[in-house]
Specification:
By secondary structure, the protein is of the alpha+beta class. The chain contains 19 helices and 19 strands. The strands form four sheets. Strands 1-3-5-4-2 form a five-stranded antiparallel β-sheet, sandwiched between helices. A five-stranded antiparallel β-sheet has the order 6-7-8-9-10, with helices on one face. It has a five-stranded mixed β-sheet with strand order 15-17-16-18-19.
C-alpha cells in the first residue's frame, strides 16, 4: 500500500472548546489509548508554557481590530499525519511502533509546512508519539491578514463547493510538502470518511469480528470471486481503519498484561521486604539492654508499692528508664550501667566489672552497647544538626552558564530547562554550574560545581558541607515518577549522566518504557549498594581510564546484576558533541542540496 498524507481541520468556537482540546493533546486528562511510557514532543510553542486558551486570547487581542463575533471560530485545530504504511513499512499493523528516522523526517517536514503557511498564527503544535501512529495536533488562530478579523471560512473554507476546493488545495499543499518522503496525496473527491473519536473507542473496545462484519461495505458482493473480494477490501480505506483500530486494541491488551505482571512482581517484593523487616526486628531484640528489673533485683532492691526500694533509694522503672524519688536523690537515667553506677555510687569501669560478675560477658556487651547508644542519642538530640547550605543562586549568570553547557558541552537547551524546572541546576555568584545533589529521599544535601568562566576553565568540585557518602546528582526518565525504578545508569559526573541520557533520548529516540534513573557516582565509597541491590538492571557507564575502569569492576563485584557499557568516544559528553557535529553537517549538506535544486 502507498503511504498517504492525512490532514483534517476542526473548528473550536468557544474557549471551552479550546481548553477541552488542550486537555486531550497536552495529556491533562486520562486518555485510554495513550501509552504513558512514551513522551510527546512540542514542535511549535516550546518557549511558552502558557495555557492554550491564553495563547489564543493573546493572539486575538494583539492582532485583530475588532471584538470577535459571537459565532466566530476562535481557533482551528489541524490534525496532520500519514497512513501507517509510511511509519512502519514492514508491518503497518504493529500499533505503537514506528521507524524513528521516518518519524523525525515527517515531524520536521510538517513543522516547516506549518511555519511556511501560517507563521505565528500557529500558536502551538504537539507531536503525539504515545498512540498507535505518530501524528500532530496544530492550533491556528484563523486571522485574515487583510481585514484583521477572525475568519476560519476565509482560511480553510466552509460548507459547499468553494469550501471543498479550499480544503482540497490545502491537502494538495500538505501532500506536496511530504512528497519527498514518499508520501502521496489521497484520491481527490474520495468518499472515504474518517472514523470519529467516539466510534474509534467503540471499535477498539469491541470484539474484532463484530467490528468487521457490522461494516456492510466490507461484505462480499453477489457472485464476486474470492480473488476480487480480497483485492477490493485491501484497497478500501475503511478496511485499513478497522484493521489498525483492532491492532490498537491488541496493543492496549498487551500493555494491560504487562501492568498486571508488574503488580504481581511488586507484591512479591513487598512480601520480601516485610520478611527482611521482621528479621531486623529480631536482631534488634537480641541486642537490647539488660532488663532493669533483673539488674535491680541483683542490686539488692526489693519491689514494694510499685517501687524498687533499698539502700535509701525509691526507684521507679519504666522499660529502659528509671527515676529515683528518694528525697536525697531525685535523679533519673537509662540503661543497666547507669542504674548500677547510681545505686552502687561507682564509676563506669566499676559498673562494667559488677555487671560482668552478675550477668557474664554477653550481658556486659549488651549493656555497653545500650549505654553507648543512649549517650549517642543524647548527643544527637542535644546538639543542633549541621545543615547543608546550597550556593546562592545568581540568575544574572545563568545565560553564560547556559551558553557553556549548550555550546561547549552540546547539551540541548530543552534538557537544561527540564533540570532547572526540577530544581537540579542553576548558576551561582562565581558563574559555576551548580548541580544539586540529593539523598535517595529527595532531600538536598550537597552540590557539585562546574566552572564555566573563561575559555579553559577546568574548575570542578563539591560545595562546602556536601554529604558525599549520602547524596548524589540524579534524575529520572520514563514511566511515572511514582513507579519503582527498573533501570539505573551509573555515570562518573553530572555532565556525563546528562550526556548519556540525551544520547539515548535524542539520538535513539528512546524514552525508557520503565522508570530509569541516571546517577552520578564518582567514587565507590558513595555507591548506595543496599538501595541498588533490588534494582534489576544496572549499567555502569564510567570512563575508559584506568581508575574509572577499576571502579567499574568493583561495582560489578558488589552488584552482580550490573553490566559495563563504554562510550565510543573518550566519554559520553564527547560522544554527544560528536553526534551534534555530525547532525549539523547533515543539516548543512541538506540545505546545500536544496539550494542546488
Amino acid at each position: 500500500m502507498v503511504a498517504l498524507a492525512i490532514l483534517r481541520v476542526e473548528k473550536l468556537k468557544s474557549f471551552g472548546n479550546v481548553g477541552g482540546s488542550e486537555k486531550h493533546t497536552a495529556r491533562l486528562q486520562d486518555t485510554p489509548n495513550a501509552d504513558t511510557t512514551k513522551k510527546n514532543i512540542r514542535l511549535i510553542g516550546m518557549e511558552d508554557n502558557s495555557s492554550l486558551e491564553d495563547l489564543v486570547k493573546t493572539k486575538i487581542a494583539n492582532t485583530t481590530k475588532h471584538k470577535p463575533r459571537k459565532d466566530a471560530v476562535l481557533c482551528s485545530e489541524m490534525f496532520l499525519s500519514a497512513s501507517p504504511e509510511y511509519f512502519r513499512p514492514d508491518d503497518p499493523s504493529r500499533a505503537g511502533e514506528w521507524n524513528h528516522e521516518r518519524m523525525v523526517l515527517f515531524a520536521g517536514a510538517s513543522r516547516q509546512w506549518l511555519i511556511n503557511n501560517y507563521g505565528d498564527k500557529c500558536v502551538r503544535a504537539e507531536l503525539h508519539l504515545d498512540e498507535a501512529t505518530p501524528h500532530i495536533h496544530a492550533y491556528i488562530v484563523p486571522i485574515n491578514d487583510k481585514t484583521k478579523q477572525l475568519s476560519h471560512k476565509e482560511m480553510f473554507g466552509g460548507n459547499g463547493r468553494v469550501g471543498s476546493i479550499k480544503l482540497s488545495k490545502l491537502q494538495d499543499s500538505y501532500a506536496s510538502a511530504l512528497a519527498p518522503l514518499g508520501i502521496e496525496r489521497g484520491v481527490k473527491g474520495s468518499k472515504a470518511t474518517h472514523t470519529k473519536v467516539k466510534e474509534y473507542y467503540q471499535a477498539v473496545n469491541s470484539e474484532p469480528l463484530t467490528a468487521v462484519w457490522s461494516n456492510k461495505k466490507l461484505a462480499p458482493q453477489p457472485l464476486e470471486s474470492a480473488t476480487n473480494y480480497v483485492a477490493r477490501i485491501q484497497n478500501d480505506d475503511q478496511f485499513h481503519a478497522i484493521n489498525h483500530q483492532l491492532a490498537d486494541r491488541a496493543f492496549m491488551q498487551e500493555r494491560l498484561e504487562r501492568a498486571e505482571q508488574r503488580a504481581r512482581a511488586s507484591e512479591k517484593e513487598r512480601q520480601r521486604l516485610e520478611k527482611e523487616v521482621r528479621s531486623l526486628e529480631l536482631k534488634t531484640q537480641q541486642l537490647r539492654d539488660l532488663e532493669l528489673l533483673d539488674v535491680a533485683w541483683e542490686l539488692g532492691l526489693d519491689y514494694e508499692r510499685e517501687r524498687w526500694r533499698g539502700h535509701g533509694h525509691i526507684i521507679n522503672i519504666d522499660g529502659s528508664k528509671f527515676y529515683d524519688f528518694s528525697p536525697d536523690q531525685q535523679k533519673g537515667g537509662g540503661g543497666a550501667i547507669d542504674l548500677v553506677m547510681h545505686v552502687n555510687q561507682c564509676n563506669f569501669r566499676q559498673a562494667v566489672v559488677w555487671l560482668h560478675e552478675r550477668f557474664g560477658e554477653a550481658g556486659v556487651e549488651r549493656a555497653a552497647i545500650a549505654h553507648v547508644k543512649n549517650r549517642a542519642a543524647d548527643i544527637i538530640q542535644a546538639e543542633p544538626r549541621p545543615q547543608f547550605t546550597p550556593p546562592v543562586e545568581n540568575k544574572a549568570n545563568w545565560p553564560a552558564v547556559e551558553r557553556y553547557l549548550t555550546q561547549q558541552r552540546g547539551i540541548p537547551s530543552d534538557c537544561l530547562q527540564m533540570l532547572q524546572n526540577l530544581g537540579l541546576l542553576y548558576a551561582d555568584d562565581q558563574q559555576n554550574a551548580v548541580f544539586v545533589m540529593r539523598d535517595l529521599e529527595g532531600q538536598t544535601s550537597g552540590a557539585f560545581l562546574r566552572g564555566t568562566r573563561g575559555e579553559n576553565n577546568s574548575f570542578k568540585g563539591y560545595s562546602k558541607g556536601t554529604k558525599r557518602s549520602d547524596s548524589w546528582f540524579y534524575f529520572g526518565l520514563g514511566g511515572q515518577a511514582t513507579d519503582k525504578v527498573a533501570h539505573v545508569l551509573l555515570c562518573s559526573s553530572p555532565i556525563e549522566a546528562v550526556s548519556r541520557a540525551m544520547l539515548e533520548y535524542f539520538v535513539r529516540g528512546n524514552v525508557p518504557p520503565e522508570r530509569t534513573l541516571y546517577m552520578a557516582v564518582d567514587n565507590i565509597n558513595s555507591l548506595p549498594v543496599e538501595r541498588l541491590q533490588n534494582v534489576p538492571n544496572i549499567l555502569v557507564t564510567f570512563g575508559k581510564d584506568q581508575s574509572t575502569n577499576a571502579a567499574a569492576q568493583r561495582v560489578l563485584e558488589l552488584l552482580p546484576q550490573s553490566q559495563q557499557v563504554l562510550s565510543k568516544a573518550a566519554d559520553w559528553n564527547q560522544q554527544l558533541l560528536e553526534y551534534g557535529w555530525q547532525l549539523r553537517r547533515q543539516q548543512y549538506q541538506q540545505q546545500d542540496d536544496e539550494l542546488s535544486i
